[in-house]
Write a structure and sequence with these properties.
The chain has about 160 residues and is an alpha+beta fold. Helix content is about 30%, strand content about 35%. Acetylates the N-terminal alanine of ribosomal protein bS18.
Length: about 160
């Protein structure tokens, strides 16, 4: 992926030069955001980072993927609040799956907050299935911690559920 053009948007690999902008979008989108250092560490450790930009160059969203043994772990997928609801999350999810397939891995694993129904709906529509729960995984404002729903998209089961 060196800059894939998609109508009015394009995908590029996340680089160190993107991190200030990525961290700024992260702070707008999440109550408990990753730090710039979290993104920097991910890139330094060889994880896959993807940026989605409008043709004007404005960052719309991004994702970070970590290969683990035989599957990809989607660590972070974020769409700027002003761009939500316009298909950017789906575009990033498709790219995450494309990268996973290119790496010849068996599927994608992720965690999502139960309090994030839009994300859950996106993942379910895409074919992810809930496979478990991680207790007290996320920090939370009105309670000490929030569980995470663990979801997985398995390529070996994909043919039974239809293609993406």
């Amino acid at each position: 992926m060196s800059g894939v053009l998609l109508a009015d948007r394009y995908l590029t690999p996340m680089t160190e030069a993107d991190l200030d902008e990525v961290a700024a979008v992260e702070k707008l989108a999440y109550e408990f955001p990753w730090s710039r250092g979290n993104f920097q560490d991910s890139l330094r450790n060889g994880y896959f980072g993807v940026c989605l930009r409008h043709v004007t160059g404005t960052l719309i969203g991004y994702c970070v993927l970590m290969p683990v043994v035989d599957e990809m772990h989607l660590l972070n997928l974020c769409v700027a609040p002003a761009a939500q609801g316009a298909g950017a999350g789906l575009t990033l999810l498709r790219e995450a799956v494309r990268i996973t397939r290119a790496e010849k891995l068996d599927g994608v694993l992720l965690e999502v907050r139960p309090s994030n129904p839009r994300a859950i709906q996106l993942y379910e529509r895409f074919g992810f299935a809930a496979i478990g729960r991680r207790k007290n995984y996320y920090p939370a404002r009105h309670r000490s911690r929030e569980d995470a729903i663990v979801m997985r998209l398995s390529f070996t089961e994909e043919s039974a559920h239809g293609a993406r």
